[in-house]
Amino acid sequence: MNNYIKLPAVLLLEDGTVYHGKAAGKIGTTTGEICFNTGMTGYQEIFTDPSYFGQIMVTTNAHIGNYGIHNDEIESGDIKIAGLVCKNFNITYSRKMSDTSIQDYFQDENIVGISDVDTRSLVRHIRDKGAMNAIISSEILDIDILKEKLAAVPSMDGLELSSQVSTKEPYEYGDPNASYKVAVLDLGVKKNILRSFDNRGVFAKVFPAKTSFAEMEKFQPNGYFISNGPGDPAAMPYAIDTVKEILAADKPLFGICLGHQLLALANDIGTMKMFNGHRGLNHPVKNVIINHCEVTSQNHGFGVIQEDVRKSDKVEITHINLNDQSIEGIRVKGKKAFSVQYHPESSPGPHDSRYLFDDFVGMLK
Fold first, then answer.
1. Does 280 appear as a known binding residue?
2. Which residues lie within the region annotated CPSase (predicted)?
């Protein structure tokens, strides 16, 4: 295994920038939009977050794999990132309760990565140049061949990806005898969101991304949840229409991340591709309703257009990002419907925002 990790690998960015390193995980080639996460822990939860589908992840923490892989610490059924770029890929791990090493985990799930990269330099480059596609290979080292392969990768802008990560069949989560029922539109839902509902006495039924409002109504839910997920929200007219129908029926609604963007689109507020997006566990957000600051966990490359929100007569702003003033939360006037751009289930991340689940359960009552 030590010999394996020492094989050479290459990272090529869309703008022609090349980084050389060592193979991590499966020997192969992978492509996707490159992005970085500033979190200092929780790498396994990041790997399995469906919102990262189609993206190559750069981790800013210097050590990845150092506490191993625990089978319970997953947010979906398998790894969702397209590939990994890191400084130190630690095969030897220290935690006794871990089930396997990161190397075995990546090999079992066919994930290609590159280590021994100067990730500080890489992150600074991406911050300056913006989001772009990239290719990692530990089997092809010819830059010209990699350029040809990379040129064929589509931009994330305009891609509909949620239907690829959504459940294929409805399933239930929690206690069927719970006081309240919530219909979850699965666009890439994380397990800790479902766990957060169960912890509050809410029984959830999770539906495939393209399920109609009429079909979900047969469950007779007390409210609706629109989940996080990957891709461009503007490329999802099916989900926008479903949100509009939920609002028209005056049902309680809560959206997270992609769900936030879809609630905006359903109220004639546009979305846009961000220069870099927000990905990390340390983003400061102000709740402008109660004048309170919370540190949040975030993962999104799209956002709602600020000007559209500020001039809308349909919604009001509830949360603002204190780093760049982007819109982090809205609620629909005259409706029991609200959403946030960040992740209050915080897996990984701080617990400052979990009150939002309590607010939603209060609406169900």
1. no
2. 1-180
Would you call 343 a catalytic residue per the annotation? Answer: yes
327 Cβ contact list (under 8 Å, min separation 6): 303, 304, 306, 309, 317, 319, 320, 321, 341
Active-site residue, 345 included: yes
To the question of whether residue 39 is assigned a binding role by annotation, the answer is: no
Catalytic residue among 33, 257, 283, 300: 257
Residue ranges and CATH numbers for the domains of the chain are 2-151 (3.50.30.20), 162-364 (3.40.50.880)
Task: Say whether 51 counts as a known binding-site residue.
Answer: yes
Distance CA 300, CA 342 (A): 8
Percentage of the chain lying above the pLDDT 70 cut: 99
pLDDT digits (tens, 9 = 90+) for 192-201: 999 999 999 9
Q: What is the token pair recorded at 77?
A: 């059924």
Residue 292 known to be catalytic: no
Q: What is the pLDDT of residues 137-184, one digit of tens each?
A: 999 999 999 999 999 999 999 999 999 999 999 999 999 999 999 999
